[in-house]
Each structure stands twice: as structure tokens, then as C-alpha cells.
Fold this sequence. Notes:
Elements: H1 15-34, H2 49-53, H3 63-70, H4 88-98, H5 103-124, H6 135-150, H7 157-164, H8 168-181, H9 190-195
Helix pairs in contact: 1-4, 1-5, 4-6, 5-6, 6-7, 6-8, 7-8
Organism: Artomyces pyxidatus
Protein name: Cyclin-related 2
Amino acid sequence: xxxxxSTFDIxxxxxxxxxxxxxxxxxxxxxANDALxxxxxxxxxxxxxxxxxxxxxxxxxxxxxxxxxxTPSSPxxxxxxxxxxxxxxxxxxxxxxxxPTTNEVFLSLLVYFDRMARLANEATGRTFVxxxxxxxxxxxxxxxxxxxxxxxxxxxxxxxxxVGGLPQSELNQLELQFLLLNDFRLMISEDEMxxx
Length: 196
């Protein structure tokens, strides 16, 4: 008899186990990227709006988004001055404790991070590197965005900022940058979520 691929319901998977797996994977990615020669420099700003307009990938963005991405004075702000002292697993568990949400919000981070890397590469020819200096900020921005998209009930940015250890104004900027880097496409199909 032919076997069907096993699937599991992400909603029923124990949240703490999911966060342990997610943290382990992201820490491995960050550690590998930390070893790259330029891993500890902030992400570069994007090309001018004219350069962006000539690339097909940007035709779905509004003109305001193109202008924001092309402004040299608006570099991506995920890069922290220092590596946060809280381990990533503890950070994820802190978010779950003080801003409870569904498993799909946390799993969606992997999808969004992949999309960000692809879009940045297509638009600039450069890789968006996830490392120890930006992973915590990427996570809190991603949870903020995904919670608002996937959940009927979510918290205020001031609460996410407090839980994430950032000023609210900084989280607001990170949220916008996160949306821009995902081309404002937040929908994840059930099949895509299952693959991750």
C-alpha cells in the first residue's frame, strides 16, 4: 500500500516545543551568518526610487513604499549595537508569556524571513543576512506584524515593544521595515505553512 505523507496540526503542537525548535533553527542560522566576513555591519540602504522602478519585483509596491526603500537616510534598522544578552529561546518564551498568540504566528516568521531574503536579493543583489545582531529585532517585529494579520485579538505596539525590550517608536519603525521587506504580502497558504 502507498503511504501518505504525515502531517500534523500546527495548532495542536505544544507551543513550548515549537518555540524550542524555532529558536534552535534561528540560532543556527544566525551563528552561521555571524561567521561571514561582513555579518556585523548594518544592512545597506536600498537603491534610488528610479532604480527600483526599473525592477519588475517592485511594481506591486506603492509609490510611498518605493520612496521609503530608496531613501538613503532610511537604512534598515534591525541591526542592534550589541548582541542581546537574552537567549533567543527565552526571548520567544517571553513573548509567548506576555503576548500569547497562536503557533502559526511563530511559524510564519520562517516564511517571512525567507521572503525577505529573496526580495532583498532580487531588488538589490545583496543578501539580507540574519545574524545575532538582528534576530531579536526581526522576531519582535515579525510577531507584531503576524499577530495583527493572523489573530482577531492582538496587543498594542506599546505592549509588544515593552515585551521586546525596545522603545515603541523603534518598534513602529521596525514594523514598517518588516512590511516593506515582505512587499506587504503576509498571506501564507495552508500548504506553504505545512511545508515549513
